[in-house]
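Worked problem 6 (solution included).
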Amino acid sequence: MVYIRNKKVKGLDYAYLVQSIWDHENSTSKQVTIKYLGKTSDINLEDIPDEYRNDPKIIAFISTYGYTHKEKEKVIPKLQKEIFELCMQCNTDGLVNTYKEYSKLFYLVEFYDKLLKPVLYKIGDLWKQGKLDVATEHASTNTVNSFVKVIEEQVSHKINTATNVSKALLRSSICKIMICTPEGELHNVSCNMMESLLVRRGYKVYNISPSVPADSVISYIENIEPDIILISVTNPDNIKAAERLIKQIVLKFDNEDNQNNNKHNKIPIVVGGLAFSDYPENYLKEHEMVLMMQNASFEEIIKLIDFSTTKNTNK
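Solution. The predicted structure is:
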């Protein structure tokens, strides 16, 4: 086993690349220094011999104590390639293990934004180019969905522990979030990823994707009374359906004529997804409560929701 050991000398931290070797004769382990790395705060991945650079423990240590953004970015292509291959193999366990290995380096939202989402885009592009058949595209996407489900189950278990329950109850009591796609939109991986991130932060999430008729969406909004609505569209062919859905929601819950009789007024609607990548920022601007977030990262959307929640808390 190889790891980095930190040693403090006269108030300064110095790092050593160390290998732990089992001594069979004495039935104990001994540590052998492979390389002196210098000041801990100055080390980067290039200081590590090639054969040890991809070790998760090494990467995690450097990320925590001396890893810069530039070096961190160098790891991303390798991981994207690995994740793509795991998706092609329908290897859900492999995805889970990869996330666990690098969870100290990438927070879940980073894992989604920097690693998983680009892989999904690549899969979609290969399908569009005819280099990937429909069955393989569906199988790989379902593998990601299975991975997200495993992560969400783990997150839900952690939230129910005593240390996290108060924060979870606070957020869920403040903000209820509904996630949906318009009728005809069958792609909902991003919806499931967003759900897992929001659940992780303790929000009460109602994910009704994929492909829900507009009248059913309206009825569901009346039943659960969400504070924020997230609408995701992946296929450009479903943009018109999304427009119709938004107009119906606005007409029902943001109409000044109904304000005195309707307790669901002014529900913020956040719209995004791959389908809107080339659309201008002022698209759908005629609707006051609709926010267009094309090309937005999961992290940016989470920050927006957190900000909205904070505003509600301080009222």
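Discussion: The longest strand covers residues 12-23.
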